[in-house]
Amino acid sequence: MSSNPVHSLQSIEPQMSTSYLDFLSVVNMSTIVLCMGGLLAVLIARWLKRWQNPKCNGVLPPGSMGLPFIGETLGLIIPSASLDLPPFIKTRIKKYGPIFRTNLAGRPVIVTADREFNHFLLRQDGKLVDTWSLDTFAEVFDQTTQSSRKYTRNLTLNHFGIEALREKLLPKMENAINDTLRAWSSQDSTEVKSATITLTIDFAAKQLFSGDLDDAPLKLSDMFNNLVDGLMSFPLNIPGTAHHRCLKSHKQVRELMSEVLRKRRCSNEKREDLLHYLINDMDTEDFLSEGFIIQLMFGLLFVSSDSISTTCALAFKFLAEHPEVLDELTAEHEAILEKKENMDSPLTWSDYKSMTFTLQVINEILRLGNISPGLLRRALQDISINGYTIPEGWVILLASAALHLNSSEFEDPLTFNPGRWKDLNPSVVAKSFMPFGSGMKQCAGAEYSRVFLATFLHILVTKYRWELVNGGKIVRAPIIRFPNGFHYKITPKT
Fold this sequence. Notes:
By secondary structure, the chain is of the alpha+beta class. The chain has helices at 5-52, 73-77, 87-96, 115-122, 135-140, 146-160, 162-184, 192-209, 220-230, 242-266, 274-281, 290-303, 306-321, 323-338, 349-353, 356-369, 400-404, 426-432, 446-463; strands at residues 99-104, 107-112, 129-131, 190-191, 375-379, 383-385, 388-390, 395-398, 464-471, 475-476, 480-481, 486-492. The longest helix has 48 residues, at 5-52.
């Protein structure tokens, strides 16, 4: 140790100075970290507040926007083993009332179960609102222009509307359904949902582009099954997810159709199918590109398959569980056959129009089935309702399922009762029953679906009996699905 005190102080002084600087450095760094952390917390809090309280030129309807980015999507797709209203919608109506806000897959959405408001919005298409699709649907079904929608509607009505049904489609439907049910009756059991998708896809495909896909390497019906399963999934495009399979199937179908279209355009062959008319119109309609035609045919195949196949599957279930309904339905169709000079002669349009109870059965299945939770629209401008404001650009879900299962409109709404349609108030039918939309915006294929279902039931109840072999479970997530299938043994009547 040094005996010189000055030297000792000189050696200690730089050490103290260094330690002090180190201390200040640590303090400053901690202060910076704390300040940055505090600032980040403030920014996150403000962002979360803005997420929960989006901008609005007025007062938003009550509700919650859920978690950032995913919103309340997970709550919507939680499976429910019931035909009742999806719990996501049911609990929020109870909590917030018939109009509430939410966020689905990152999009702000207004859900409305208000009968009068829904009826009003459906009459405002192209004015206050426009048709819309959530992201998964939008990737599969392009958002088209108003002029192309008008063309599509007119084209669909010309080829699948009442005149086409009466003049040529009804006998073709009867033949196709006869052949299909005969084939089912030769099997140990049939999963009627997927088998009916095959029936409807094959039949519609023949009307769209004749038999051009008969020898395709992939089955259209298989691809459409994958597509339907992914439509209401979370839009996460990662291999293994339902959304990824959906988009993959969509791509495969489009590629098949592209090949058909290219071959047909290079051919001079004329056919009486929808594709022939589309190709001819390409010279006069600017929007009729190859991509548009493929998308249109894809959409027509889809709407003709899922709703009909689901309704047919539910018909097997409901009729088996309600023998008194089956007896009345069978009596109506046997009476149609007894009036014919030849019981094997084909159905006529007047036969179809006489199926009063049959159409009541179909309405009741559609009401209870609620294949989708509702109709989607997008606000073209701010919309005021009951003191609230729906901001421009927001998606609006018209919860038709909530109207179909409203006990003030339909007594014992979860009970299968086709007889309720005999004396139902016309205003209830007009405003609270919309399986195919409503008014002028009703799906152009609505009558096509009813005729197909009525013809299917006619052949089923007059020629066959059936027994559940396996499955039968119903799940909503939120689209109705049958996870174990509906496997029935179909037996010819002796």
